[in-house]
Backbone:
DNA sequence: CCGACTATGAAATGTCTA
DNA sequence: TAGACATTTCATAGTCGG
């Protein structure tokens, strides 16, 4: 009924040829991936049909740019070879090879001055060590010297987008030279995936030059040995994909190292000596992030495997999250009293109106926005047409919407979204935690939707109680409404000094107000912007209050979250890339505390 | 300008079935 | 096992009225 009116879009797009090369790349080595002349004819046909949009070869250009070659190279290659994809690929591979050797530099019009990354810094880095060895073959080692060094550069201030990408690529095992070349060629907006594609192509080209040096010198632009080249290209791409496909899988059931009601027989994990606390750290983000995100996060956070837990095992609402931490996992204990475990227990008044065909036991994840009044009205009028149970199709529609928007039954045929104080209770906060102080209702939903589930986090942090009987110093990054602080407080762990970094003023006010109301004896210091929390400032703080025992932080998820239709850009997204700031600060604290 | 409100899918994963 | 089908998701941008 609602948003299914988009049936026509696919008709005008012809997908039959677009993925030709990618499909070939995925087929195993058993069948050599050779482009047939059939494919070329089809492509040529399409290109005539769509010549009004873009250039005459726009489709071909897109195809090769998608493979990681720069647009300039592609255009030049097409100009020389027409529509023959075989010849174009050959030429491209040759070009990218020649670009690596200065004496044979072609004037391809690549303009170094247009790229604004700091070449001086990069040169310094690449001179400092023998990073040019290709790590891909050896596999990825744990926290390498590379990004430690990058980090020490970054610790004086915040990270630029380019430095972030560079860190990511360095962590994937690529050399800094490769990464910076790729970034220069692919432009500042290029995603990591595009960059790795480019590096792949360059690697092939390099290996090619090694194997066929003579051949290339004599026969620069001809179609020599194209089968070998392409085979090589696909092999390297496969190697790259093998790295990318090393995806962390979510456990089912999502109980991490155990939940109060379900504790595995024997749980054990051994952390490497160098990551054992203190300082302890606790990082959180959404479990269902785009592919590869958790691999990257885990690689940065010292190769510690994330613990994925769904908060539905702690409360009446689901909340699937991943936590990376170096806490002990033995002898955890839950907060008491245990919060309501079902919708029924949490909202007894809804039982009277709850239809038998609504089989929900738990609510879905609480988000930052609520269902509209119009939807509730649509549901009511749909149900009022029937005396008893509505037909199955209506039931299905209503249930779908109730699940999607977390609606509960508040009257005859009447559904409604949760109230802010109900959300507070479900998430383990004291009632009215976010109320007052001039905060709007909308902002309450937003702040709560972005928060921890306190019981879940407290269960993990409970092991700290016996480690720090006299309290601890807490560094809380992206504090939000203070889920970590509330969890520790409810556990009875004394907070000596809390340094809290939170962008939103209303959230800082909420934490401050909670701090005062709970008669805390320690000090609460808050900061606005994590990018301003540099090494110098941290050092000053630590000289004053002592070292941090615990670093808590859940970095922004909005570019990772599934409900974001607009900017689900992954870890490189505008806000979610602040993860690298978390890492920067954490690594500084760790280095300083040693 | 602020706050309430509404419309806006896709991507990843899980489950069922041939 | 592959593919159809089902479920879930810490959101954004725009409008409107005060």
Residues:
């Amino acid at each position: 009924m609602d948003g299914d009116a988009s049936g026509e879009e696919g008709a005008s797009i012809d997908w039959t040829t677009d993925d030709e090369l990618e499909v070939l790349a995925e087929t195993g080595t058993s069948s050599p991936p050779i482009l047939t002349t059939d494919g070329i004819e089809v492509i040529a046909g399409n290109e005539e049909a769509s010549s009004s949009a873009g250039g005459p070869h726009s489709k071909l250009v897109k195809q090769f740019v998608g493979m990681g070659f720069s647009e300039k190279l592609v255009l030049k290659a097409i100009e020389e070879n027409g529509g023959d994809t075989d010849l174009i690929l050959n030429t491209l591979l040759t070009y990218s090879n020649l670009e690596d050797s200065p004496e044979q530099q072609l004037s391809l019009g690549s303009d170094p001055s247009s790229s604004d990354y700091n070449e001086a810094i990069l040169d310094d880095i690449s001179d400092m060590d023998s990073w040019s060895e290709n790590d891909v073959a050896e596999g990825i080692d744990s926290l390498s010297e590379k990004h430690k060094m990058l980090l020490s550069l970054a610790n004086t201030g915040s990270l630029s987008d380019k430095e972030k990408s560079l860190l990511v690529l360095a962590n994937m095992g690529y050399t800094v030279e490769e990464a910076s070349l790729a970034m220069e060629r692919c432009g500042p907006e290029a995603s990591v995936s595009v960059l790795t594609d480019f590096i792949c192509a360059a690697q092939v080209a390099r290996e090619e030059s090694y194997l066929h040096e003579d051949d290339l010198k004599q026969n620069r632009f001809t179609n020599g040995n194209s089968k070998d080249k392409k085979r090589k290209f696909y092999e390297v791409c496969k190697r790259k994909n093998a790295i990318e496909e090393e995806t962390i899988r979510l456990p089912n059931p999502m109980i991490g190292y155990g939940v109060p009601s379900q504790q595995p027989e024997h749980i054990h994990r051994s952390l490497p000596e160098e990551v054992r606390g203190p300082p302890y750290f606790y990082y959180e983000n959404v479990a269902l992030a785009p592919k590869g995100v958790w691999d990257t996060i885990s690689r940065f956070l010292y190769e510690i495997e994330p613990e994925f837990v769904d908060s539905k095992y702690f409360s009446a609402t689901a909340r699937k999250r991943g936590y990376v931490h170096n806490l002990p996992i033995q002898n955890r204990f839950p907060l008491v009293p245990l919060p309501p475990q079902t919708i029924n227990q949490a909202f007894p008044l809804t039982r009277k109106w709850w239809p038998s065909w609504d089989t929900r036991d738990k609510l879905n994840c609480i988000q930052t926005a609520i269902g509209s009044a119009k939807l509730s009205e649509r549901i009511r009028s749909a149900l009022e047409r029937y005396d008893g149970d509505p037909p199955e199709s209506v039931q299905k529609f209503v249930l779908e919407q109730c699940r999607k928007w977390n609606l509960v039954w508040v009257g005859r045929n009447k559904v409604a979204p949760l109230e802010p104080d109900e959300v507070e209770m479900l998430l383990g906060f004291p009632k009215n935690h976010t109320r007052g102080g001039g905060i709007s209702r909308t902002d309450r939903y937003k702040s709560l939707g972005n928060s921890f589930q306190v019981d879940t986090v407290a269960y993990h942090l409970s092991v700290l109680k016996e480690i720090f009987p006299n309290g601890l110093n807490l560094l809380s990054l992206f504090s939000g409404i203070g889920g970590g602080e509330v969890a520790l407080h409810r556990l009875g762990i004394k907070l000596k000094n809390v340094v809290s970094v939170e962008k939103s003023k209303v959230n800082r006010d909420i934490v401050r107000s909670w701090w005062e109301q709970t008669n805390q004896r320690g000090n609460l210091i808050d900061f606005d912007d994590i990018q301003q929390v540099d090494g110098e400032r941290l050092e000053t703080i630590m000289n004053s209050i002592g070292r941090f025992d615990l670093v808590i932080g859940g970095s922004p998820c909005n570019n990772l979250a599934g409900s974001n239709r607009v900017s689900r850009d992954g870890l490189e997204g505008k806000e979610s890339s602040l993860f690298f700031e978390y890492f920067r600060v954490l690594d500084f604290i760790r280095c300083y505390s040693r």
Notes: Chain A is about 45% helix and 10% strand.
